[in-house]
Specification:
The complex is a heterodimer of chains A (about 400) and B (about 550). Chain A is of the alpha/beta class and about 400 residues long. Helix content of chain A is about 30%, strand content about 30%. In chain A, the strands form 2 sheets. In chain A, strands 1, 2, 3, 4, 5, 6, 7, 8 and 9 form a 9-stranded mixed sheet that branches. In chain A, α8 (about 235-245) packs across α9 (about 310-340) and α10 packs across α11. The longest helix of chain A is centred in the last third of the chain and has 30 residues, at about 310-340. The relative contact order of chain A is 0.10. Chain B starts with a helix and ends in a 54-residue tail after the last strand. Mean pLDDT of chain B is about 85; it is low at about 15-35. Classes of the chains: A alpha/beta (about 400), B alpha+beta (about 550).
């Protein structure tokens, strides 16, 4: 009995000592990568840029004396190589700690790199063990390096700022995994978040009245359209709304419509929730998609003086909202079908689900079929509340 | 290595085993030089002088033994002797109810000359002694034991019989609040060091002839009185037999505390988990007895053992049953959570910081990274330092004389907590983790939390070496061990493993009293029914009668 116990004790002890702790990495030994950017250099090499958190800047609590001398929260460093991995190895020669990708919030691809093809980039981040597939994928106009070199006034780092912006889904947002899924599917062409570094707002301070400095900060500006893994064009913020409606994603935001009786004044409807259903119809010849969008919203703002609480006014309002949404989808459809000729909405997947046999024939020339397809958008609007005011105070009694 | 183990084991265990065997053998033959023990079954002689001589020889150099010789009813023919120990006998009773009654008051009623020597014993017993408890014996051994227990022995010349008067009375601590198990609601009494008082405390709570209290004597030198209490009809008879047989096995020289017995009767002496519970609250013991358990009381200690013991017992405070069930269940839930925290929190922290950084949300990781930037130690060493200093502080808090308590808490809180963080030696997060772990381990029974403390360090080493893998394998080993444990035949983890559906009513949640129909299935095998069903109160149909 005792022999056994002693043996196992010894064994346990030896396992602890001999095996060592080979994968042990203390937090103070790692460089936490918060944002990654990939660019294509002029000579065709890949430039990897990482935004690394500087832990000393994240000290919390009321440490006195630190006010005004805020340390920069990140360190942006880049290296070049033929592949992402090679660039990463060169990067490791500059960064005195082990690069740690587990908390990489965003993956930014530069415009040129995106045009060359994103597979060269995303493959590494999907294959590697550490990076998460839920990192936000975005494409920036210009260079990713420039984008990462900005800083934010609210978030500690620009990578986190971009991450928070995307997560709120105020604009089109896509994660690395979703992007890879779109890339793998023949029924949809990938789209990614479009971001830019733009001057936005100022940080005033005492004694700075005349030297207001506005620096570049991250901003979501729409979506990037891909054919396979190559960037072919952009959608601006308005067209992106149409993309979102047709994809049935991120039902957020507001729709501004003219007031029923006074068309020069506007009424704002904030979207509460909505859903999108795509019903394909195919008779072997003609391809048609019926898109049914259901929207619920609250009225939050009224410029006109009329009494909108009346049923007939609400009905008019509903139609106006439906029309506004139809317009947005039309713009996005026009871009996708006309200008770029790619199915970025995933209609192909809806078709695949319904017509499995026909899909086999069509899938290899799906984008051409898509451009020829007829799309009917039906919008069903419900207005839930008209807010705390039923009538404008200045409205005369009628 | 075999050689090493063999010698080690020989040194550690076999040697001691032989020793104790020798000692036992010496005692049995009766020529041990511990004291001059009377021969077994030695009978008293009719001659008072011979008896006194024999007793005096036994109590040689015992200055606290008092011999008082006097005559019965002023009759010079009938000589008496009182023997008792100063300090253990109630002097008032001895002088008033025994001496005064026999020497002075009897002749006032019956002239002393009428009583013959032959009838003296009869007379003393029937008419002379004013004592409430009187026993007779003719064995020298019984006389010796009676004297040692604090009784007063009356020897009568010409009779081979001694009268044992239960006139015990010594300085004892009075009943106070339970120190180790304080409560907000519920009885405030706790056991004391006197066995009789303790049995009375239980008897006062269970007024039923079913409550049986059997006594036996343990300890070759100390001759400590030990009582086994159980409720007949509820308790499993085999359990009582098992307890008795385990107690009878014990051959030690002393039993100074229930801890001596606990270690000698427990099921798995190597386990860090206690399989014999102890408490100092009579209400808790009463509740245990009513669930079919057996209590073991030892003279000289306020702690009472109860068996069989289940894992969940240590998470059940007696207050749970006095507070309303919703609150009690919530509090018990907290106790379960803190039990898990006290076992795993430091190891989780170590594993997450040295291996699994992806477990943290990004802002938390950055915040911890910032704190750890200046810390010169790996996190394992850091946590180990803090855990050890916490243990040192805790131990000091228990040992130190009361007036110094404040000084220690200042040093503990300020120097170790505040200063080490300010100096950048320890991360603030580590202090929080260690403090939370420490506090969490005090939410349940102290003796149980000791097991968790020991295991916590083991798990810390494991998770420092292998990360979560180590932590999980450690927890798996602990779980397997717990599953294999038994306490007096009852699985330690029951009613969870093996699952007894009805008994889950009193594990994590405490069901209301009107829902407690049955006693624990695996313990009270005889009488399962605790109370009638349908006791749930309902408001009257007609609210205003």
């Amino acid at each position: 009995m005792l022999k056994k116990i002693a043996f196992f004790l010894l064994l346990a002890l030896l396992t602890g000592i001999l095996s060592g702790c080979w994968s042990r990495k203390e937090i103070s030994e790692i460089a936490i990568v918060l944002g990654t950017g990939v660019d294509l250099t002029e000579d065709g090499r890949i430039r990897l840029t990482v935004q690394i958190a500087r832990p000393t800047a994240f000290v919390g609590g009321g440490e006195a004396g630190a006010v005004g001398t805020e340390a920069p929260a990140s360190w942006v460093v880049s290296a070049e190589g033929r592949t992402v991995e090679e660039a990463e190895r060169y990067l490791a020669m500059k960064v005195p700690r082990e690069l740690y990708w587990g908390h990489n919030v965003i993956l930014v691809i530069g415009e040129e790199m995106a045009k060359k093809g994103t597979r060269m980039v995303t493959n590494f981040f999907q294959r590697e063990r550490q990076p998460r597939e839920n990192a936000w994928l975005m494409v920036t106009k210009g260079e990713a390096k420039d984008f990462l070199e900005t800083y934010s006034d609210l978030a500690k780092t620009s990578a986190q700022a971009a991450g928070f912006l995307t997560r709120m889904k105020t604009c089109y947002a896509v994660q690395l995994r979703e992007f890879a899924e779109m890339l793998a599917s023949k029924g949809v062409q990938p789209t990614a978040t479009r971001v830019e570094a733009k001057k936005a707002g100022i940080t005033p301070g005492p004694g700075q009245e005349k030297v207001f400095t506005a620096h570049k900060q991250v901003e979501l500006t729409g979506a990037a359209v891909f054919k396979e893994d190559k960037l072919i064009g952009w959608l601006d913020a308005y067209q992106t709304r149409g993309l979102l409606w047709l994809k049935g994603e991120a039902m957020k935001g507001a729709v501004i419509v003219p007031s029923p009786a006074e068309p020069d004044k506007n009424v704002s409807i904030r979207i509460l929730r909505g859903s999108t259903k795509v019903v394909p119809e195919y008779d072997g010849e003609n391809l048609r998609f019926n898109v049914i969008i259901k929207v619920e919203g609250n009225m939050v703002d009224q410029q006109s003086r009329e009494d909108l609480a009346r049923p007939e006014k609400i009905k008019a309002l509903k139609e106006a909202v439906a029309e506004a949404i139809r317009q947005r989808t039309a713009v996005a459809l026009e871009k996708a079908q006309g200008e770029y000729g790619v199915d970025i909405f995933g209609f192909g997947e809806a078709f695949h689900r319904k017509y499995k046999k026909a899909w086999r024939e069509l899938k290899d020339r799906w984008d051409e079929e898509f451009t020829r397809a007829e799309v009917n958008v039906t919008v069903d609007v419900r207005i839930r509340e008209i807010g705390l005011l039923t009538r404008r105070a200045s409205t005369e009694e009628k | 290595m075999r050689w090493l183990i063999r010698t080690l084991s020989k040194r550690l265990f076999r040697g001691r085993k032989n020793q104790s065997r020798d000692a036992r053998a010496a005692n049995q033959t009766g020529d041990g030089n511990l004291f001059r023990a009377p021969r077994k079954n030695q009978v008293l002689s009719p001659d008072l002088e011979t008896n006194l001589k024999a007793i005096k020889a036994i109590f040689d150099k015992c200055s606290d033994v008092i011999y008082r010789e006097f005559v019965f009813a002023q009759n010079e023919q009938i000589r008496l002797a009182l023997i008792y120990i100063d300090g253990l006998a109630d002097k008032g009773q001895v002088s008033e109810q025994i001496m005064r009654a026999l020497a002075l008051e009897v002749p006032m009623v019956v002239p002393g000359q009428e009583i013959t020597k032959a009838r003296a014993l009869e007379f003393i017993k029937q008419r002379g002694l004013c004592m409430h408890q009187v026993k007779e014996t003719d064995k020298l051994q019984d006389v010796i034991h009676a004297i040692l227990s604090g009784d007063t022995v009356l020897l009568v010349d010409g009779h081979t019989c001694a009268i044992i008067n239960g006139a015990r009375g010594w300085e004892a601590r009075s009943i106070t609040d339970p120190v180790a198990e304080p409560t907000v609601r519920g009885p405030r009494e706790s056991f004391v060091e006197t066995l009789r008082t303790n049995t009375a405390l239980i008897r006062r709570r269970i007024k039923s002839p079913g409550l049986k209290i059997e006594t036996l004597r343990l300890g070759e030198v100390t001759n400590t009185d030990v009582a086994i209490a159980y409720v007949e009809g509820i308790v499993n008879d085999k359990l009582v037999e098992e307890v008795k047989s385990r107690l009878e096995r014990i051959k030690v020289d002393a039993v100074l505390e229930t801890g001596y017995i606990e270690e000698l009767i427990e099921d798995n002496p190597w386990s860090p988990f206690p399989t014999v519970n102890h408490t100092e609250k009579p209400d808790r013991v009463a509740a245990m007895l009513l669930e079919g358990r057996v209590a073991i009381l030892v003279d000289g200690t306020p702690f009472v053992l109860t068996v069989p013991t289940l894992f969940v017992e240590y998470l059940q405070a007696s207050e749970d049953y006095y507070e309303r069930f919703l609150f009690a269940s919530a509090v018990r839930l907290i106790r379960f959570v803190s039990m898990i925290l006290s076992l795993t929190l430091p190891s989780l922290y170590i594993a997450a910081i040295s291996f699994h950084h992806e477990l943290f949300p990004t802002p938390l990781l950055l915040s911890i990274a910032a704190q750890r930037e200046a810390v010169p130690f790996p996190v394992f060493i850091e946590v180990l330092i803090m855990e050890l200093s916490f243990e040192i502080l805790r131990e000091a808090g228990v040992r130190l004389p009361r007036p110094i308590g404040q000084a220690v808490s200042i040093v503990g809180a300020l120097v170790i907590g505040e200063a080490s963080v300010r100096a950048g030696l320890i991360a603030a997060a580590t202090v929080i983790v260690v403090a939370l772990t420490g506090i969490a381990s005090f939410t349940f029974f102290y003796s149980f939390s000791i097991a968790f403390r020991l295991l916590r360090f083991t798990l810390m080493v494991l998770s420092a070496a292998l990360g979560l893998l180590g932590l999980i394998s450690g927890l798996a080993v602990i779980t397997i061990h717990l599953c294999s444990l038994r306490s007096f035949g009852v699985p330690y983890l029951s009613p969870m493993i093996p699952t007894t559906g009805v008994d889950l009513k009193d594990v994590v949640l405490r069901s209301p009293w009107w829902g407690m129909f049955t006693r624990p299935r695996l313990i009270a095998r005889q009488d399962q029914k605790r109370q009638e069903q349908g006791l749930k109160p309902t408001p009257p149909k007609n609210p205003r009668p």
